[in-house]
Design a protein that fits this description.
By secondary structure, the chain is α+β, with helices and mostly antiparallel strands. It is built from 6 helices and 9 strands; from the N terminus they run αββαβαβαβαββββα. The strands form 2 sheets. The chain has a 7-stranded mixed beta sheet with strand order 2-1-5-4-3-8-9. It has a two-stranded antiparallel ribbon with strand order 6-7. It comes from Rhodobacter lacus.
Length: 213
Amino acid sequence: MPVSAKTAAVGGALTLAVLLGASWYLTIGKGPEDPLAECRVGATAGTTRIGGPFTLTSETGATVTEKEVISGPSLVYFGYTWCPDVCPIDSTRNAAAADLLAARGYQVTPVFISVDVARDTPESLREFTDLMSPKMVGLTGTQEQIDAVIRAYRAYYRVAEPGNPETLIDHSTQTYLMDPAQGYLDFYDRDVSPEVMAESVACFIDALKTNTK
C-alpha cells in the first residue's frame, strides 16, 4: 500500500479520536457531585455506561469473560497488531504506566483487544503483547464478539479495505480504566503521558479503597 494511503488512514483515526472526545465532552462531563473528580484526567470522564459483559478468546487460546480479564484495575485498549505506529505507541505507553504503578505497589493490567478478526490470531496477539509487557493481556474473538464489545465500550473501528491482506484499520484510540466492582472509571487520550496516567490510576485506586471502607 502507498505510504500516502497509510498516512491518510492513520490521520483519519486520529481525527476520529478527536471527534469522539468532543462528542463525549458534550454528553458526559464532570459532575459537581462526582466523588472521584480529583482523579480524572479529562473533562469527558464520568457517568455514562461504558463497558459490560463480553466473551472473547485470550492470547493463550482460552475462552474468557470480562470477569476473568478485568479481575482488578485494568487499562483496556482497542487496536490491531498490524497497526504501523499508533497501536504500538499507545500500548507502550499503557505498559509503561502499569510499570510505574507496579513500582508503587499498584497492580494494574493492560488489556489489548484486537479489532482485526481476519489477521489477529491468539499467537500473533501473544507475540505483540509479549513485546509490550509480560503483564499485557491480548484478546480476540469472532466478528460478532468483537462488534459486541466495541458497542459496549462505545468504541469504533472500520476496515479500510476488506479482503486486502495489508489493509489498515481506522479505530478509536482511547484507553479505558476499568474496575471489576465499579466498571468504567475514566479514559485517557493519546496525549496523556505514562506519568499522568499512573497518577490518575493510583488516585482512583486509593479513592475507591477509602470510599468502600
